[in-house]
Amino acid sequence: MAGRPRARGRGGPGPRRPRAAPRRLPLNPRRPDAQALVAAAGLEAQPTRVPGAFEATAGRPADLAEDGTLFLQDRGSQLVARLAAVPGLVLDACAAPGGKALLIADVLAERGTVIASEASRRRLATLARLSHRWGAPNLRLVAGDAGRAPFRPAFDCALRTRRAAGWARSPDTPDIRWRCRPEDLPRHAERQRRLLEGLAGLVRPGGLLVYATCSLEPEETHGVVGPFLDAHPGFVVAPLPEWAAPFAEGRFVAVRPECHGGDGFFAAPLRRRA
């Protein structure tokens, strides 16, 4: 497979390195004192290219995350959530740990409702605790696999973000590279294709389907979206919003660690024809 070299372990798992906490964060809009608390904690929160996202260049943001003042979330996740923040009814499938669902709910406020679906009861419990701490009134939690749940095609937007093979991890998250092998890519890509197929039927005519993955490998990005569009002429690539221009790669968006910092992410907004 041609392309840039991929980091991988040799002879079994490599050394486990400590994961650095993400330092990009949104603030809780229901906390009018959020900015003051951030300043009092010594955080130097600077705006980023993603609307409403900040980057802490100093201080300890984890302490304020515990009381629901802010949420630690990588830039790519925030970008994907912004793409999916379509007024109306939004489905976030595989929603745990919940950061994207919360951000979508905050962006929409009274303009929409977010259904956060999660198959794992353990991960759903984590999401529920975070949701309680954050206090978003327009977020609803559902236990179940959204690809097989009894939803009807009524969603104005459906988002599915799936953890992928992991080659796009930044220096902040190097350990996953040791757990992935190049021969895993076809299996991951096939899973991505099945998940996208299952979600497409839940989007109403004229609605948006956002395919996102924390991978930048062709097999899991263009190799999934291209065949899907070929097989589903009822879907077309939706125009990107103006704010996403710094991350645009052709008709899609990509967050690259070497250019933007944080973890790698790919997202494709797909519109179902009305």
What does this structure look like?
- It is a single chain.
- With 274 residues, this protein is an alpha/beta fold.
- The chain folds into two domains: 20-72, Alpha-Beta Plaits (2-Layer Sandwich), CATH 3.30.70; 77-272, Vaccinia Virus protein VP39 (Rossmann fold), CATH 3.40.50.150.
- The chain is 28% helix and 23% strand.
- The protein contains eight helices and twelve strands.
- Strands 4, 5, 6, 7, 8, 9, 10, 11 and 12 form a nine-stranded mixed beta sheet that branches. A three-stranded antiparallel beta sheet has the order 1-3-2, with no helix packed on it.
- A hairpin with a 2-residue loop joins strand 10 (248-249) and strand 11.
- Residues 1-22 and 166-178 have low confidence and may be disordered.
Q: What count of helical segments does DSSP give?
A: 8
Largest sheet: 9 strands, mixed
Q: Which CATH class of the largest domain applies here? A: Alpha Beta
Strand content: 15-25%
Give helix and strand order, one letter per element, not per position. Answer: EHEEHHEHEHEEHEHEEEHE
> Structural class of the secondary structure composition?
alpha/beta
Query: In angstroms, what is the radius of gyration?
Result: 18 Å
CATH superfamily of the largest domain: Vaccinia Virus protein VP39
End-to-end span in angstroms? 39 Å
Identify the overall geometry: globular
What are the segments in which pLDDT stays under 50 over at least 5 consecutive residues?
Answer: 1-22, 166-178
Rounded mean pLDDT is 83
The count of domains is: 2
Helical fraction: 25-40%
Number of beta-strand segments: 12
Which topology of the largest domain does CATH recognise? Answer: Rossmann fold
Under the CATH scheme, the architecture of the largest domain is 3-Layer(aba) Sandwich
